[in-house]
Amino acid sequence: MDIGILYRFSPTHRIGLTVKNIADIYESTDSPDNTPENSEFSLPVYVTLGLSARYHGYLLSLDNELIYGKYGGTKSKKATFWFVRAGIEKKLNEMFVLRCGLTIPVKAHTDTLGNIRNDLPWPKMGGAVGIGVKHDRFTFDFAVYGDPAESYVNQEIRIKAVFSLTVSI
């Protein structure tokens, strides 16, 4: 279960908070030991606090995300991650929007791997560039980004792309 709130404290400034995986979600067998501690799969909690501001035709954003708790398939796996992200968006016209952003992993620790922040390849951060296109009821978004989370595992820079389509009804 997730929850979020967005508060507009001026026409140009907003603050938001989301918490993901609030309930102790886990999956286990039908055994008598069906508890979060003995689960076959569990999810950590994600807490994100963000700010945004409109300034001279740009949308600026800054957020902090903390990820903590049990994960994966064994009771001994716990993690703590802290990411700081910043982004900028420029609306070119009524149809096109350009975006770019930066993700800085401040802390990365798991019980099984220890402190993995130092294992990230240079430049020890991720970036993203993207474009949004809105036409009638359809919004298309495309982005290319460096994935710091997968870089932890592979210890080399990982570049990915994502595409989304939103239809307004």
Question: What is the element layout, followed by pairings?
Answer:
Layout: E1 3-10, E2 13-20, E3 26-27, E4 41-42, E5 45-55, E6 58-70, E7 78-91, E8 96-110, E9 114-115, E10 126-135, E11 138-146, H1 148-154, E12 159-167
Antiparallel strand pairs: 1-2, 2-5, 3-4, 5-6, 6-7, 7-8, 8-9, 8-10, 10-11, 11-12
Task: Give descriptors for this structure.
169 residues; mainly beta; 10-stranded antiparallel beta sheet; two-stranded antiparallel sheet; 4% helix
The first-to-last residue Cα distance is 25 Å
| Order of helix and strand elements from N to C terminus | EEEEEEEEEEEHE
Major beta sheet summary: 10 strands, antiparallel
> Low-confidence runs (pLDDT<50, min 5 residues)?
none
Gross morphology is globular
Average pLDDT taken over every residue: 85
Query: Any idea what the radius of gyration is?
Result: 19 Å
Structural class: mainly beta
Strand segment tally: 12
Oligomer: single chain
Share of residues in helices:
under 10%
Number of helices: 1
